[in-house]
Amino acid sequence: MLISIKPIVFDLDDFSEEIMTDDLWHFLLELKRIYPKFKVTMFTVPLLCSEGWLKWVKKEYDWIEMHYHGSNHIDRDEWFDKTEIEFPYGDFFYRGFKAPWWRMNQKTADVLNEKGFLISASKNYFDVNGDRVYRFNLGQKRIGGIWYENSKFHSFHSHVQEQRTKVGLPDVFNKAINSFYNKSEFLFISELNL
Asked: What does the DSSP assignment read for 110-124?
């Protein structure tokens, strides 16, 4: 079922050098082939990447925008009650942030907001406020937990790798390519007027 023509915000979690296999790159490159205007916001785990790999991604794929996804994706409670935040590799990342497991509190959000970060948040797991907050699961549900439609755009959120819940890009790839027109417009999260 093809949907109406609205911009699509496509974002994927847990992007890192450690995770990205040739097969996962194949899925991303195939989306770009099918959708010439394809853009994706990748929530990237910085400490699972080398500087060389991040530099390569930034240089070779201008249709990928990397936002921070925590630091190492190990501690489920790392993003609670932060008073200071420093991130590595600032030259390769947009000033965007999503907490691993979508777990953080307002105290941490306040620090990120003061530093000028765009915060991506789930309406189901935490409700944080800031100058710029993107809620990736607001709107009419088209595919539960993956694809939502609101008045201005479609939001397609998943994981780059396969998950136990079967909502990784390899699992939802066919749903993605059967959902959008090949001339669809895509936006990075940073391009939204939040």
From this structure: HHHHHTT-EEEE-TT
- Could you give phi then psi for residue 45, rounded to 5 degrees? -90, 105
**185 three-class SS:** coil
Radius of gyration of the chain (CA): 16
Q: 55 — phi, psi (to 5°)?
A: -65, -40
User: Which one-letter amino acid corresponds to residue 117?
Assistant: F
Write the pLDDT tens digit of every residue in 8-38.
999 999 999 999 999 999 999 999 999 999 9
Distance, CA of 51 to CA of 32 (rounded, Å)? 24
Distance, in Å, from the CA atom of 84 to the CA atom of 22, rounded to the nearest integer, reads 37
Q: Which of 145, 99, 103, 157 is nearest to 125 (CA)?
A: 103
96 vs 189: CA distance, rounded Å:
9
Q: Global pTM?
A: 0.93
- Domains along the chain? 8-191 (3.20.20)
